[in-house]
Amino acid sequence: MTSSSARDDAADVPARPVPNPTLARAARLGQPTEDELLFSHCPGVPTRDASFLHTDPWRVLRIEGEFVAGFNALAEIPYGVAIFGSARIGPGRPMNDLARDIGARLANAGFATITGGGPGIMEAANRGAFEAGGLSIGANIELPHEQSFNPYLTLPLNFHYFFVRKTMFVKYSVGFIIFPGGFGTLDELFEALTLIQTGKLCPFPVVLIGESYWRGLLDWMESAMIPERTLDPHEFRLLTVTDDPEHAVSLMIDARHAADLSARAAADARKGR
Q: DSSP string spanning 129-182?
């Protein structure tokens, strides 16, 4: 039992703080806690260093987020057709008019039109689909010189990474229609052909619009690549060249029919029929 005098003597001695195991080390040292740093807009809390935004681990999370956002936005669209071509071929030029016509035909056939969302051929195809009451999708990309969305989109998407954006084109399209274009258009063209050639992608129609524009490339492939055996003749036949919009769209309709048959066969196999 503690005597009264002992209690009185103890009251005159300052109490020693009891260690709190739940208290963050930063708080014990008088520094901001991680929660305070997270809510760094609070008064008196220093602004967090944003350099982590430029680290590879953060980029992985950003890439994952772009995939999730793209898959979520496009998961329930009908069959799509990707249209590529130069941003520099503006209104009043024959290829621009043809892209607009094909966009409208695709919409009337029940397809979603998917482009890069920018000007030129992309805008023309989106405009045709939009004016025909179809689904007009633009998968834009962040560039050093910003490319703005064209005004004919019912579903605009924006990406930081080319490879994420390319995945969306391939995953949600039953075919590609390629108009005259530059490096970006060629990149999409040959990536699609490579995926088909290597079996990473089921064969789907790759249609080149503009016979005169593509003729030099095709002649070179036939005269140089095939004789050198860097390209097999059957691989060359993965390409279709036409200036007929009806023919181009009919190939997409055939591809959709084939995809429907394949999906039904796969469903029947899962059911054990």
A: HHHTT--EEEEEE--SSPPPPPS--SEEEEES-HHHHHHHHHHTEEEEEE-S--
Strands 206-209 and 173-178 turn out to be parallel
**DSSP code at position 118:** S
Beta pairing partners, 100: none
pLDDT higher than 90, residue 129: yes
User: How far are the Cα atoms of 69, 70, 77, 138, 176 from residue 73, in angstroms, in the given order?
Assistant: 6, 5, 8, 12, 20
**Is 35 among the domain residues?**
no
- Give pLDDT, residue 271: 83
Q: Is the pLDDT of residue 27 over 60?
A: no
CATH code, domain carrying 108: 3.40.50.450
Both tokens of residue 237? Answer: 């036949």
In a domain, 231, yes or no: yes
Q: Which two tokens stand for residue 216?
A: 């030099």
Q: Is 117 inside any structural domain?
A: yes
Q: Which domain holds residue 80?
A: 65-271
pLDDT above 50: residue 8? no
Number of domains in the chain: 1
Phi, psi of 77 (to 5 degrees): -75, 155
State residue 5's pLDDT score.
42
Task: Please classify residue 122 by burial: count the beta carbons closer than 10 Å to its beta carbon, then call 0-12 exposed, 13-18 middle and 19+ buried.
Answer: buried
In the prediction, which pLDDT does 160 show? 86
In whole angstroms, give the CA distance from residue 60 to residue 46.
27
Q: Residue 178: what pLDDT?
A: 98
Q: pLDDT digit string (tens) for 30-59?
A: 666 555 554 555 555 555 566 766 677 888
Report yes or no: 181 and 85 within 8 Å, Cβ to Cβ: yes
